[in-house]
Amino acid sequence: GLWLVAVVAVALIGCDVIECRGDHQNPHPVIPDNVKIQKNSRIEDMEYWYEEAAEELAESLARVENNNVARNVVLFLGDGMSITTVTAARIYKGQQAGDTGEEYKLAWEHFPNLGLIKTYTVDKQVADSSSSATAYLCGAKTNYYTVGVDATAALEDCASVTDRNKLPSVARWALEAGKRTGFVTSTRVGHATPANLYAHSASRSWECDADFDNETLIACPDVKDISRQLVEDYPGRDFNVIMGGGMQYLTGNVTDRPGDPVIDEDWACIREDGRDLFIDWQDHQAEEGRRFASVQSRSELQALNLTDVDYLMGVYANGHVPYEHEKRELGLDIPTLAEMTEAAITVLSQEANGFFLLVEGGRIDLAHHDNLFNTALDETSAFDDALIKALEMLDTEETLIIVTADHSHVTAMNGYPLRGQDITGLADVADDGRPFTTLSYTNGPGFYGAYEVSENGSEVVRRDITEDDVSGFGYTHNAAIGIDFDTHSGEDVPVYAIGPMSHLFQRTHEQSYIAHVISYASCMGPNAPH
């Protein structure tokens, strides 16, 4: 009987019996016959692994600390990019390249220095994207859901935000040091992460004027929404590069476009005060006599001679920038994250004093919230492409590049899938005789489609997903607990670094430490005097 199982496994996946044996707890996993498996052509015997280790030892022993001043700093922020996401994205991209995937390395995994980052906030064990951004962009931990203020400001209490608790960001430090500065995001330009570069708010939800309730407006009649702070106030109005989505937060004069509808759900905002902040930004640049450009499409961006542009605003969507696979499949006239990064560096690198740039892969997080794991992997791959482009353009002898995440997600990599087994596919068959995917979540909307009533109506059973397109970008992965959006999770996230002073990342750090490393390495902000 034991050999019969092995023969069945061989027939299903076409490999030798010894290769088909998994962990001792499940020595003969039943792999569904529609699972793709990439064959490993290497002979990975003792000699192979000894040689691999010798090469890595040689690289580690040859490493020299870079104690230069960082003329440039680029912070790559993978929003919600958990360690599970990094591992799965590594396999995903490696398999796309035709290999088994596990041995592949994303661009940041070649960096010489890394550590772990603790993401808790002053008042929560698990952070949101805004409070965590305050830590790594402003150098101080704060309360959940607040923006650019320390913990003496209270959530949704506009009167608690004062000049005393408003925190300067690394972008402000860069401007004050005579550097250029800017950000690129696949979310809205006023969303939780980039907002912490320029705004101070008792709630990240106050992204446009329609977000305020009457009580807030009565208590603080002069309160500014986050989008106005970007365009009207220092330092945002003086950023050299602003790129992302969120046009309907800047102006109410918006219309549906292909692949880019006006979002009118309860959690979205459409500007109601009659302001057109996109035009106001242009007016400010003109009044200052600056060389500027504003664009709303990939074709408009590509038509620019960026060496003649000192200030660039690109707003490419009404809401968040569409997913990368949507841009490809629908042929949308919207730049990729890598193309936005290339344009940003071209503009910023014209300053002799250097620059600071934030690049956010923000839709990794939003895909996870909807339990769209395959889409999250594709967004992580695009994030990796953006980093590759930056590495092609910049010299790490003078540029500090940091890659990290703001928080984790409730992600899991399950079962005992075979080497080279499709990371987006089915993993194994459970005790109920039905398959499950390699990737899943502990909570989220995927719970609601995961179960059904049995044929005899006597019990609730797990739905058979054998024929589901589990590798599709629109597939909602199963979750153990039902909730409309999956939650963040509180475990540590990795930080990877290369360039001047990157060796300062070398153990478990508080998230606020990141901003201070940037300050120290580039001699700006609180660490300028050294």
TrEMBL record:
Membrane topology category: Lipid-anchor; GPI-anchor
The record's free-text note on cofactor binding: Binds 1 Mg(2+) ion. Binds 2 Zn(2+) ions.
Reaction equations catalysed: a phosphate monoester + H2O = an alcohol + phosphate
Binding-site residues for Zn(2+), renumbered to this chain: D79, D365, H369, D406, H407, H488
Catalytic residues, chain numbering: S129
Chief location: membrane
Alphabetic keyword roster: Cell membrane, Glycoprotein, GPI-anchor, Hydrolase, Lipoprotein, Magnesium, Membrane, Metal-binding, Phosphoprotein, Signal, Zinc
Any one annotated GO CC term: plasma membrane
Signal peptide stretch: 1-20
GO function term, MF aspect, one: alkaline phosphatase activity
Superkingdom classification of source: Eukaryota
InterPro entries per the UniProt record, alphabetical: Alkaline_phosphatase, Alkaline_phosphatase_AS, Alkaline_phosphatase_core_sf
Location relative to the cell: Cell membrane
Binding site for Mg(2+): D79, H191, T193, E360
SMART domains: alkPPc (SM00098)
EC numbers for this chain: 3.1.3.1
Cofactor: Mg(2+); Zn(2+)
Gene3D superfamilies: Alkaline Phosphatase, subunit A (3.40.720.10)
One Pfam assignment: Alk_phosphatase
Family: Belongs to the alkaline phosphatase family.
Official protein name in the record: Alkaline phosphatase
Organism this protein belongs to: Hirondellea gigas
